[in-house]
């Protein structure tokens, strides 16, 4: 089996189901009109913002925000089984699907009374902001997350490693409002670019489909960012690059095995 096929299989692997027991953060939201596309459905960049807010609310809910305030995300997976349309009441359930002492994968399932579900998973790293290095979880927080997974030695494995294509890319304009407290482009801002290019591949998003976005190196305000695109029959791949150095890679493709 080739390395490319192994990566492809990883990028299509099913996400863990909602656990029967253990700690699950369960919260409701009303779908906001600012997150809608032209069909009045929840956009993928809107999904990313719900995930960001749910993460902070989850930490606050369990009393872990003060000890664990700083995080970066290395990968986000978003499976749109069926679009969520406005108006809708959302239910978000968030739990841990794998962890180590300094990072974890967090699943979030979005259900609604008008569409869905949307299944997601993020690979989150707890950071020490001063040293900009991964920081250990408290024992209490680790034990809480561990109640929904047997994977306690989680390792990072990159899924998207295709080389940057030679064709020129399209400019991706940065805004100061997209910069976070690390002075990096916030992870949700990348999804604006993904949403724009997804519109060029409606056949891939007509049925159940998956987005994968991996962050390799941060983007800073003022850098000249280009999005390079490559389309095959199975997927649309996007590279966010600065001077042809790849900073992030995204993949959009149909979700096999779904009706």
From TrEMBL:
Q: Which Pfam families match?
A: Acyl-ACP_TE (PF01643), Acyl-ACP_TE_C (PF20791)
- The Acyl-ACP thioesterase N-terminal hotdog domain sits at 35-142
Q: Which intervals of the chain form a coiled coil?
A: none
Give the InterPro entries listed for this entry. Answer: 4-hydroxybenzoyl-CoA_TE, Acyl-ACP_TE_C, Acyl-ACP_thioesterase_NHD, HotDog_dom_sf
The chain positions of domain Acyl-ACP thioesterase-like C-terminal read 170-231
GO MF terms on file? fatty acyl-CoA hydrolase activity
Q: Which GO terms describe its biological process?
A: fatty acid biosynthetic process
Q: What is this protein called?
A: Acyl-ACP thioesterase
Q: What organism does the UniProt record list as the source?
A: Nocardia terpenica
């Amino acid at each position: 089996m080739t390395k490319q096929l192994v990566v492809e299989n990883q990028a299509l692997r099913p996400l863990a189901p909602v656990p029967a027991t253990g700690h699950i953060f369960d919260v409701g939201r009303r779908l906001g009109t600012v997150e809608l596309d032209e069909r009045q459905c929840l956009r993928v960049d809107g999904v990313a913002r719900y995930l960001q807010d749910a993460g902070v609310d989850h930490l606050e809910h369990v009393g872990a925000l003060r000890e664990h305030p700083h995080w970066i995300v290395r990968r986000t997976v978003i499976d749109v089984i069926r679009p969520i349309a406005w108006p809708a009441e959302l239910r978000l359930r968030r739990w841990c699907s794998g962890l180590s002492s300094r990072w974890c994968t967090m699943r979030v399932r979005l259900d609604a009374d008008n569409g869905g579900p949307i299944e997601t998973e993020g690979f989150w790293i707890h950071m020490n902001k001063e040293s900009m290095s991964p920081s250990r979880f408290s024992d209490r927080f680790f034990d809480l997350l561990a109640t929904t997974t047997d994977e306690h030695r989680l390792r990072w494995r990159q899924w998207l490693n295709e080389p940057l294509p030679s064709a020129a890319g399209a400019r991706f304009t940065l805004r100061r409002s997209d910069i976070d407290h690390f002075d990096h482009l916030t992870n949700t801002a990348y999804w604006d670019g993904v949403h724009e290019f997804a519109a060029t591949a409606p056949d891939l998003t007509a049925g159940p489909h998956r987005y994968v976005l991996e962050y390799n190196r941060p983007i800073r305000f003022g850098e000249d960012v280009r999005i390079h695109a490559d389309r095959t029959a199975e997927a649309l791949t996007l590279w966010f690059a600065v001077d042809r150095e790849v900073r992030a890679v995204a993949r959009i493709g149909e979700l096999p095995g779904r009706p």
